């Protein structure tokens, strides 16, 4: 993708896939990596006994909590990166000895705190990509048999363009001016 002109990548969200992680590390070394928070929570259930589910998992969910539209947010959920790290340190201190493997994973699920708060809800998981894949699957299933590979590719491209335009115009999925302002603020604070 770099050879074809990919540039400006700052953030990668992915499931815990060793090949993908090593490729991102090699090709996009300067990029922040975010493990999909939703998949992380699902994987966490595999490493917790049922009796610990309630306390440990509830605290874990709170670490990545974002106020959702239409809900009255808990003021504690509007954390900064520093506050999230403090909460993470407290969680690790409490659960680290009982669930060491789980503790090793959790830090890479909070990378989204580096972004503007308006982006947290959308960029802590791969849900955005999974929704696009689901729509492609649904639309291609309706057609069932394509006359050739190019016809399938045209449909997928059209869906990708339509989704992109919706994110830019209709829904304003991510407001990039928020990201620019966030970067300016970080530069000012660093100086």
Short structural description:
Helices cover 61% and strands 4% of the residues. It has 9 helices and 2 strands. Mean pLDDT is 79; it is low at 67-76.
Main features:
191 residues; mainly alpha; single chain; two-stranded parallel ribbon; 2 domains; 2 strands
Structure, described:
This protein has 191 residues and is mainly alpha-helical. It has two domains: 11-116; 126-191, no CATH class. It has nine helices and two strands; from the N terminus they run βαβαααααααα. It has helices at residues 18-27, 37-46, 50-63, 81-95, 100-106, 117-123, 127-143, 149-170, 176-190; strands spanning 11-14, 32-35. Strands 1-2 form a two-stranded parallel sheet. Helix 1 links the parallel strand 1 (11-14) and strand 2 (32-35). Helix 3 (50-63) packs antiparallel against helix 4 (81-95) and helix 7 (127-143) packs across helix 8. The radius of gyration is 19 Å and the shape is globular. The chain starts with 10 loop residues before the first strand and ends with a helix. The model is unreliable at 67-76 (pLDDT under 50).
Protein topology:
Layout: E1 11-14, H1 18-27, E2 32-35, H2 37-46, H3 50-63, H4 81-95, H5 100-106, H6 117-123, H7 127-143, H8 149-170, H9 176-190
Parallel strand pairs: 1-2
Helix pairs in contact: 3-4, 7-8
Counting DSSP E segments of at least 2 residues, the number of strands comes to 2
Q: Average pLDDT across residues? A: 79
The total domain count is 2
Shape descriptor: globular
Strand order within the widest beta sheet? 1-2
The amount of beta strand, in percent, is under 5%
Q: Give the radius of gyration.
A: 19 Å
Structure annotation, total helices = 9
* Sheet with most strands: 2 strands, parallel
Q: Determine the structural class based on helices, strands and strand pairing.
A: mainly alpha
H and E string: EHEHHHHHHHH
**Helix-residue proportion:** 55-70%
